[in-house]
Amino acid sequence: MLRKVLIANRGEIAVRVIRALREMNIPSVAVFSDVDRHALHVRMADEAVGIGGAASADSYLRMDKIIDAARKVGADSIHPGYGFLSENAAFAALCEKEGLIFIGPPSSAIEQLGSKTSARQLAKRAGTPIPPGTEEALNNANEAKAIAREVGYPVILKAASGGGGKGMRRVEREEDLEAAFRDASSEAERSFRDSAVYIEKFIVRPRHIEIQILGDHHGNMIYLGERECSIQRRHQKVVEEAPSPFIVNHPELRAKMGEAAVAAAKEAGYTNAGTCEFLVDIHGNFYFLEMNTRLQVEHPVTESITSIDLVKWQLRIAAGEKLTLKQEDISIRGWSMECRLYAEDADNGFLPSPGEITSLSLPGGPGVRLDSGVYPGWKVPLEYDPLLIKLVAWAETREDVVHRLIRALEETHIGGIRTNVEFFLDLLADTEFLAADLHTGFLDEWFTRRKKHEFTPAEIEAAKRVSALARRPKPQQVHVKSKWKELPLR
Amino acid sequence: MLRKVLIANRGEIAVRVIRALREMNIPSVAVFSDVDRHALHVRMADEAVGIGGAASADSYLRMDKIIDAARKVGADSIHPGYGFLSENAAFAALCEKEGLIFIGPPSSAIEQLGSKTSARQLAKRAGTPIPPGTEEALNNANEAKAIAREVGYPVILKAASGGGGKGMRRVEREEDLEAAFRDASSEAERSFRDSAVYIEKFIVRPRHIEIQILGDHHGNMIYLGERECSIQRRHQKVVEEAPSPFIVNHPELRAKMGEAAVAAAKEAGYTNAGTCEFLVDIHGNFYFLEMNTRLQVEHPVTESITSIDLVKWQLRIAAGEKLTLKQEDISIRGWSMECRLYAEDADNGFLPSPGEITSLSLPGGPGVRLDSGVYPGWKVPLEYDPLLIKLVAWAETREDVVHRLIRALEETHIGGIRTNVEFFLDLLADTEFLAADLHTGFLDEWFTRRKKHEFTPAEIEAAKRVSALARRPKPQQVHVKSKWKELPLR
Amino acid sequence: MNEAKVESMVWSLLDGHRQLEARVDREGEDYVVAFRGRKLRVQLEDPRAWNGSGAGKQSSGIAKITTPMPGKVVRVLVEVGAEVKAGDGVVVVEAMKMQNEMKSPIDGIVKQVAAVEGATVNGNQMLVVIEAHAG
Amino acid sequence: MNEAKVESMVWSLLDGHRQLEARVDREGEDYVVAFRGRKLRVQLEDPRAWNGSGAGKQSSGIAKITTPMPGKVVRVLVEVGAEVKAGDGVVVVEAMKMQNEMKSPIDGIVKQVAAVEGATVNGNQMLVVIEAHAG
Does residue A27 have a cis bond before it (omega within 30 degrees)? Predict the structure, then answer.
């Protein structure tokens, strides 16, 4: 087994990994930036090493400092979490060179899958369906035009090194293509220092469905069902669920997509946990989108329905153990859904809302899992991703899990900062959401029909009453020295 | 469905039922005694009714006040939880008479199963194995002697109306029988106002294994696997798990015991959720112990491994719905274990430790379920059962679930009162416990070999350091009115 | 209404038998009261004129551009005396990996620039003052 | 040792790279420090003689019988002047459905009875004082 694991991350995912390590009796090492000395992941770790300034570039992205910290404490392995250095092939390669176990795929697999164009080529070789378009970066707008005519409009331009929705432009008509190409290239250059852009057919009202895979160093690889993550804003997932309501109605797709994901991963020489993202159109055609070469934020929904602990398997695989699970061992039970609770003002363009969590009360009871990175009194720093807590529910059916999430959200209180709790309460009550008629543009449409919550007169009355009570000054607590009592008070 | 449900209980079980109701959109009504106005179950309910003084006899045991409260708020049904009136046949009968739905079995079933001797007779009729002994109360010690000679020593004397270990005496030799009979009778008289005592063969080193059943009003009844509750102190369960390690090694017993439990329940005309308790000897012989005609404290471990929500089924069945689950739908996945966190001083004879919970920090992450009845600042009253929180874990294997529980207990902090958290940490680390060599006398033996936890020198140093930091007085916060400033201070 | 203070800033209210749990947080001059995850803002004091985000919505007079969130000023796009149109960006603030461009709500002249590039700002901190063209 | 106060009465300590989270609670004159669920008692003041539960363990001199927990006095079994043997019950206190009989730790004479039947008592409250027989 691994001797000691350094977690090159922060927040809820660092806490998640530390919990797995503690359950496996493996010492855990946290790293922290200057503003994270008080962070929950530090409090829970066996050891902790400061690695620099608040800005990610000065700490969590500093490969040298992280490798150095691992050396100092005698860690033999590094878990990268998600984000930060997790999909950085150079970091994985550096670990390999330094004789440290990188808990993830080999750097060569990250390298091949990191560029969207090389990933497209790889998927094509593996026989995994890809959207019609180029595998290579475009040289100019005219090349784009030729391909767009071939595959038909609408098309989408994407940054080859992109992610997170940056450097992407949807184009409906040929006359808009040239400007869109220019915009996408320059945004790609700014965001990723790589102006390369490629073109694909745009899939209309697609679902985002992804396949979780696990592979060991002995040639074994399995898929663990799918997750649907069609509820997105600005190409960021907000609600994830497993299974996918679409796949439940098209059960033959699960094995097809699972096998396609495994084929692509094998082609890349993949090991450890990974996720193959697909777009699925209304006819059930699916297209390779990209491979995420790390643990996903939304991995708990897969854990909930398969009863398999993905993080523990990451650790075992990294230690060289065999994947004893066979494909036929994987079965799905019930339904799971995750809400990402963010420090953001959901009523005001989802602006980040860092600051002190002045009060915190979290839900419990059956079917509720909380992966939290915060505690009452924690000052959410403004330097990092605003994810506070993942609220994950499990229940027998999709309807039950939605009701359970609503109940759990109603039990949740996060004071002092703004969060998206109410946004979720509204969304989960939406009849179309309940009908599971999902696609990646769902949220944009929903915002236009969103109903405003109405408080009851009793609630409004009560709010005034308790505000008055809260305002009432406490009985003056003046600690007066005894000799003061003798002073003549007018 | 039910229109509005009153929960005739308090603490974690009232919270558990309220959560199920909220997930089913059924209004919930809490009742509370004078010391429970601030209790968590009141805070979570839609409606709440005060029912009298702190002593249970003045509130939670007052049938008239509870029926009256249900009338006042227009509830159509009453969930009794466990304890209090839950196994009171007269209360169930009163509900029936008043046209209120008692969420539990019919009063006639409670009546028949309430007396241990009539339950024995009933089990015998149903063909459910019972320990050799009497079905009838003994008239005198001589009758006891005759039967003891027949079944062989050791024997056990039990109060016919008993429970919770009171009115029970184990007897090894004939010369001790007469005194034991006298003691058991008088204790039974004091505790249950019924001196009737019966005799059974004492099963040596038995396991306590119980079967969960569910039956509807349409003749359908199923069993939902077993729970092992052999870890007991003073005949009170402390740790419960499902499945039973013994049954896992003797898988043919699950169906045998399940069918025996269903047979006994059907004989009693049973409906709703119930539990048939068995003693199982080392050879796999099992003997009917008693039927608990209510939800058990430890029901979550069954929910965790079967993925079935027992409380929701209680509500559906009470509303007259059909049990759509068939016996073949019930399957078991993984392992679940529960620790009952009590307000008690585990190092000092498990004396109750009521008082204010000055700080509270609870565990989270994968596989952890918390059924809590408390919150930070709650003053645990001295009038009721000291159960604070049920910590329930689920994992793939028994070994994994024990490690998960240890991790979760280490994350648990309950300040201001004494609890049994450390007792569990010690017990779960015991090698014989891990080996699952369990029997009802396990804890008594374990106490004699229990190892004292040793703090590290670094911890002792750190404890002194933070105590000194905690002691350091805060800067004096004197709020002085402005005019005082003008007073001449010497 | 029967009020029981159950925790610091948390009340259980009984209106007849109806039970409401209310959690209160202060936010500036206001109180924010939460019922089962839903938050309601209560203003006990009179809102001060020309303060807070509401002020930015004026279409004439003076507009004070304030930060809607804490963050770091990454760019100041205007100088005192500059002319701006409604919708023009004036300052870019970054927090939690997101850049937000603050826009002028009115046509006018920049009267004051309090924002400094690289500085950390709190929520509701004044960044730029713009005076509308007369008439 | 690097100390970071992370919450009220909670510290994260770094001793080199070793991290310890310590949670402190006051209990009477003592501090109780918890590390991962395990509690350690720290006495900063000198323990006062004849006070607290330790006092009851004396086998000579004076024994003050105190309550180990809050509860209700259900029975007082002795009167002033009564003679008791070590192990004799003196008061029965009930809490949370459990009755606990407080026993005399010494042979002696009852000097004082502070317990009153039906009264509610706090933890560590003095119930009965017993003076050992001379010799």
Answer: no
Number of structural domains in chain C: 2
C-alpha closest to that of B251 among B275, B230, B225:
B225
As beta bridge partners, residue A91 has none
* Chains contacting D (3+ CB pairs below 8 angstroms): A, B
Q: Domain holding B27: CATH number?
A: 3.40.50.20
d(CA A123, CA A200): 14
Domain of residue C24, residue span = 2-42
CA distance B346 to A15: 30
Three-state secondary structure string covering chain C:
CEEEEEECCEEEEEECCEEEEEEEEEECCEEEEEECCEEEEEECCCCCCCCCHHHHHCCCCEEEEECCCCEEEEEECCCCCCEECCCCEEEEEEECCEEEEEECCCCEEEEEECCCCCCEECCCCEEEEEEECCC
Looking at the structure, tell me whether residues D30 and D16 fall in a common domain. yes
Q: Which amino acid, A37?
A: R
Residues forming beta bridges with residue D120, ordered by sequence position:
D72
Q: Are residues C85 and C117 in the same domain?
A: yes
Q: Do C40 and A460 touch (CB under 8 A)?
A: yes
End residue of a domain, out of A201, A232, A261: A201
- Whether B92 and B142 map to the same domain: the answer is no
Give me the tens of pLDDT residue by residue for chain B, a chain 490 residues long. Answer: 999 999 999 999 999 999 999 999 999 999 999 999 999 999 999 999 999 999 999 999 999 999 999 999 999 999 999 999 999 999 999 999 999 999 999 999 999 999 888 999 999 999 999 998 887 889 899 999 999 999 999 999 998 887 767 888 999 999 999 999 999 999 888 888 889 999 999 998 999 999 999 999 999 999 999 999 999 988 889 999 999 999 999 999 999 999 999 999 999 999 999 999 999 999 999 999 999 999 999 999 999 999 999 999 999 999 999 999 999 999 999 999 999 999 999 888 888 888 999 999 999 999 999 999 999 999 999 999 999 999 999 999 999 999 999 999 999 999 999 999 999 999 999 999 999 999 999 999 999 999 889 999 999 999 999 998 998 755 433 333 332 323 332 2
Q: How many helices (H) and strands (E) does chain D have?
A: 0, 13
Strands A28-32 and A5-7: what pairing?
parallel
- Other C-beta atoms closer than 10 Å to the C-beta of A57 total 11
The alpha carbons of chain C give a radius of gyration, in whole angstroms, of 20
Question: Who contacts A269 (Cβ-Cβ below 8 Å, separation ≥6)?
Answer: A105, A106, A108, A109
Range of the domain at B73: 5-96
Q: What are the CA-CA distances from residue A93 to residues A99, A198, A215, A317, B281 (Å)?
A: 10, 27, 19, 18, 59
pTM, rounded to two decimals: 0.87
Number of domains in chain A: 2
Tokens matching residue D80: 């002033």
Output the domain CATH number for residue D86. Answer: 2.40.50.100
**Identity of the residue in A43, A49, A376 whose CB atom sits nearest the CB atom of D21:** A43
C9/A contact by beta carbon, under 8 A: yes
- Domain co-membership, D31 together with D96: no
Pick the closest to residue B240 from B251, B249, B232, B248 (CA basis): B232
Q: Give the domain-ending residue among A181, A201, A221.
A: A201
C81 and C37, same domain (yes or no): no
Instruction: Write down which chains contact chain B via at least 3 CB pairs under 8 A.
Output: A, C, D
Residues 13-32 of C with CB under 8 A from B: 14, 17-19, 21
Does B23 contact A396 at a Cβ distance shorter than 8 Å? no
What ipTM does the predicted assembly reach?
0.87
Q: Which of A60, A69, A94, A107 is nearest to A272 (CA)?
A: A107
The answer to whether B47 and B61 are in contact (CB under 8 A) is no
DSSP state of A243: S
* Residue A136 and residue A92 share a domain: no
Taking CB atoms and an 8 Å limit, are A469 and C5 in contact across chains?
yes
